[in-house]
Design a protein that fits this description.
146 residues, globular, 1 helix, six-stranded antiparallel β-sheet, alpha+beta
Length: 146
């Protein structure tokens, strides 16, 4: 079983890396060329973070990589969403969104489709797709998004 989880993890990582490369090549965004930009690292607890909007103050967003830091290539953030909370219905006009559920369980509504996504789930949301997510259960959910 552990070997299957490792294969799934490597497959997920490869898929995410492939998607980012695809976005860089075909998005028309200025990519950071080799040797340009500045490397950075955030150790646990060091990433800039902020609480959620009114009514969602217990939700925490950590900015792991902003488009400014990556030359417009990608933005990555990690969210810890309180029980029974989550972002309201929204859509991205031009950007795709990826989400990896690290812990807990999310209920996603993407267009008309509703999916319960436990830890280990990977979600791809194309541009202009109305999306809403809400945690289920009594524990917070941690997810990383691009």
């Amino acid at each position: 079983m552990q070997a299957n989880l490792m294969k799934m993890g490597f497959g997920l990582l490869f898929s995410l890396a492939t998607a980012v490369v695809f976005l860089v090549l075909f998005s028309g965004s200025p990519a950071v060329a080799a040797g340009e930009g500045e490397a950075f690292i955030f150790l646990p607890g060091e990433a800039p973070h902020y609480g959620g909007q009114q009514g969602r103050e217990a939700d925490i967003t950590e900015l792991l990589a902003t488009t400014e830091q990556t030359g417009g290539v990608v933005g990555i953030f990690r969210q810890t969403i309180a029980p029974k909370s989550g972002p309201p219905t929204h859509l991205h006009g031009m950007e795709v969104e990826f989400c990896y559920v690290v812990s807990g369980q999310f209920n996603f509504k993407m267009g008309e489709r509703v999916v319960s996504a436990p830890a280990g789930s990977f979600i791809f949301i194309p541009p202009r797709t109305p999306t809403r997510s809400r945690t289920s259960g009594q524990s917070p959910v941690c997810c990383c998004s691009v």
